[in-house]
Design a protein that fits this description.
Length: 227
């Protein structure tokens, strides 16, 4: 069965052309010309991935992404004309899975869609479905994380990072490996992402983030989840 891609952009010409290209590539393409229409279509059709434009009138990509993340972990690729690092970091914090900067080729975007769907599908994490170490429990089926029985609210990116760390507990993991597995090969050289997200993660799972007991730093190399 074809995977469904929801395209959200106020440029109707782009929606039409990109939708046709994706359909020829074997996907089912849904089109929405505003953030609100995109959210309504998401509820009704439950797509496998969302391609979301950042610069839209009324409800922009940031607000649309934030509203989507309140109800869904669907993968999101953001289309943006902005190349600044701060924009990417903000997007990843909100739960964006990848970025494509305008102007872009349809072939490039299609390759990114395929890569994100493959990454989400395999999760990069081996069995078991439930990981429990110390007081931290992560359930991949329900996407629920608790510490000492208390539920923790993690973004999709934080969840993937924690899941990968816990799946390899006791094993020192390089920053490059973590970025590649959580964000994808295109970001393997962007070490700043992992520093920022390790900080976010520690704020949520550590009893004392200044003195972590779970996510430990391997100085000059990367990080390790305490076994």
């Amino acid at each position: 069965m074809s995977q469904t891609i929801l395209l959200v952009d106020d440029d109707t010409s782009l929606l039409n052309l990109l939708g046709k290209y994706l359909e020829k590539a074997g996907y089912r393409a849904l089109r929405a010309d505003s953030g609100l229409a995109g959210i309504q279509t998401l509820f009704e059709k439950q797509p496998d991935l969302v391609v979301l434009d950042l610069m839209m009138p009324r409800m922009d990509g940031w607000e649309t992404c934030s509203r989507i993340r309140e109800v869904s972990d669907v993968p999101i690729i953001m289309l943006t004309a902005r190349g600044e690092e701060s924009s990417k970091l903000k997007g990843f914090q909100l739960g964006v899975d990848d970025y494509v900067t305008k102007p872009f080729s349809f072939a490039e975007l299609t390759a990114r869609i395929s890569a994100v769907l493959a990454r989400v599908g395999r999760s990069g994490i081996p069995v078991p479905e439930v990981l429990e170490i110390g007081g931290v429990r992560l359930d991949r089926r329900t996407r629920r994380v608790t510490r000492d029985g208390k539920a923790l609210q993690l973004s999709p990116t934080e969840f993937r990072l924690l899941a990968y760390l816990m799946a390899h507990a006791g094993e020192p993991l390089s920053s490059a490996t973590l970025v590649k597995e959580v964000w994808g090969p295109a970001y393997a050289d962007d070490k700043d992402y992992i520093k920022r997200y390790i900080w976010y993660l520690r704020q949520k799972i550590e009893p004392d983030p200044a003195n972590p007991r779970y996510v430990l730093t391997e100085r000059g190399f990367g990080y390790r989840f305490a076994a």
